[in-house]
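> run fold Molybdopterin synthase, large subunit
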Amino acid sequence: MLGPLIDSLIRVIRSDDTWLELSGAPLPVEDVRRWAIRPDCGAVVVFCGTTRDHAGDRVGVTELHYEAYEAHVVPRLEALVAEARIAWPAIRAVAALHRTGKVALGEEAVVVAVSSAHRSEAFAAAAHLIDRLKATVPLWKEEVAPDGREWSPTASVIEEPT
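> ok
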């Protein structure tokens, strides 16, 4: 087994069973899906959050920009994965990757993948991870539209992890 790859800015943690990343580049969704496949797992759930042209009542969004408190993103993702592994011990591979910078419409801003022997654990853990990621990881999006730029009105105060 290769040891985990951890970059100096803590933007990536990658091992045989965990892939966490904060990236300014397009997310490698198909690579994540293939990486999550395991011979002992019959389920791989992949959730992709893609950018869209509206948010709440605001229409005509043309692009989004994501910012992060970078030093805290991957450590918080790591804590969420540990939490999920306790709640669903049957899960095997777990990935959570998020973009920063400009993200064009239709591109993935976030991807979460979970594999397990059975679908119920994979679905539950993936749903939990994306919900907790949005609530506890310090990431913010700015919407660009013909009428100007503004921070997403759906942004919430970041909760401290429990």
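The first helix runs from residue 29 to 36.
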